[in-house]
Each structure stands twice: as structure tokens, then as C-alpha cells.
Amino acid sequence: MDKVWPRLVHEYARAELLPAYVGAVAVWIVSTPFRRIAGAFLLQVWRVLRLNGGMWFEIAARYQEVFQNRELRQLRGPAYAYALWSALFAVPVQVLRDGEVEYGRYGRMHRSWWLAGQVTLGEYGPELLVRAVRSLGRYGRASGEACLLTGRRVFAVMHGVGWLLLLLLSLAIHVPMAIYGLMEFSLCGTVGVVALVAALNALNYLLKWTSFGLETTVAIGCMGLLTHGWPLGDGDGRLRKMAPHFVVGSVWDSVLQQADDRDRSESASLLRLQEPDVEELEDYQAALDDPYPNEWTPCFDEASTDRK
Length: 308
Prior knowledge:
- This protein has a domain at 151-281.
- Helices cover 80% and strands 0% of the residues.
- It contains 12 helices and no strands.
- The longest helix has 70 residues, at 117-186.
- The radius of gyration is 40 Å and the shape is elongated.
- The chain crosses the membrane at residues 20-43, 154-173, 185-206.
């Protein structure tokens, strides 16, 4: 373990891999809308698959019981074929009637299909198509909204970079001004600063302390001009808002406002995607009321008697 850990650190904790790690985190954050939509879609797919799988497993088990029925095996010829054909429709009807609470409206739809193919193909089919198109439309619309929300996140990142550059510019302007202001305060005004610079230049000329005397003098002069000239151009107060504390406050307010707006927009988009579709076709309600209340159920004694 003592050898493995340094090796892992050497392999994966390298500076050249830092952009890749930062990029992966950025992609994870930016792709949040798509991941939420994918999670909602997979949840709905799993619910539908589980519902259909349980229903068809129960129907298959009932078919197996019918095939093993002793009375059915005693039938021959047309009576046997008729019993099998009747069981083909009666078994799903029985399963769906017994599991009406479990399968709900979806089970009643299948029961109506087995009872009357015309009702299913003529009335539930259009409803199914409308629901499918509406669902696809919702996911398509949500995907479009996710693209817009992702663009907003990218714009927020770029906006943050802009704020950072503005803060650096503000510091580059105000830090020299603060240093010069401290010098003036320590030396009792501009005259003291000029006297100190003149004295230092004279001593440097005589003693040859450094070769950067001229550059230092010019830098101090520029700092003085900036310090005294900056307020002169701030007639409307705009330059004052470039102070670092103003910039930091604006950045904080902007980040909070954008994050709040972004969360509200993404939550609203996800709620619109997940809201239930409660519309029903009026004509299909007749099928739910069981138009064939006295449907035939497998009774093999009757089948053998009727077909003799």
C-alpha cells in the first residue's frame, strides 16, 4: 500500500490533468438539465415495462393453467379448437378483471380490447396515438428548453469570467491608488512624497544604490497622477462603482439572482414534463363501462355440448 498510493498520486495528480478534471466537472454541472430529463424518462420507461411485464406474466401463467386443464384435454376436434380460441380471449379478460385495481385504466383498456377489437382499434387507438404524440412533444419541448437552459449556464460561466476580469482590472487600478494614498498619508501630503522621491533620487545618484531609480520615480508619478486624476473623471459616480468592494457586491448579487432564476426555470421545465396527462376521449368511456357484461368464460362442458 505504501508503494501504490505514491504511484497513484504520481499518475493521476498531475498538473497537466487539472484542465481535464475541471472540464469534466464543468460538463457535469452544465449537463444537469439533460440528466434530469433522462432520469424522468427512464423512470417512466421502467414503470411501463414493469406494468406490462407483470400483466403478460400473469396472462401466460393463466394460459398454462388452461392448457393443463383436464376437461380441456378431453375435448376433440372442433370443440377443442373452439375452447382454445375462446380461452385466447377469455383468459386475459379474467386476469384483467381480477387485477383491475392493480392495472387500473390501462388494464381496463386491454380488457375492452379483448372484449371488442373494434372498440380498441376504433377508439382507443386514436387516443393512444394522441397520448404518444403528446408525450413525444413534451419530451421534445423539454429537450429544447434544456438546450436553452444549458446555454444559460454557459452564458453564466462566461458572465462569471467577465466579472473576474473586471475585478482584476479594478484591483489593478485601485491597489496602486491605495499604496500612493498610504504614502501621502505617511508623508503628510503630496509635497512630502515629492520631497522623498527627490531625496531618494539624489542619494541614489551619489551612492549608486540601484539602476531602477528612474523607473521607480516614473511609477510613483503615474500612481500620483492616477490617484488625483481618477476622482476628476468621476462626475456621475460611475468610476466609483468600479471599486473592488462595489464589484464584489455586484458579483454576489448577480450570482444569487442568476442561480435563483435558473433553478426556477429548470424546476418549472421539469414539472411541465412530469405533469400527468388527464385528458380522456369521451367516446372511449363507453369501452370502460364494459359493453359486454356477460362475456363468455372458459367452460369446457358447455363448449363440448354446443359443438356436438
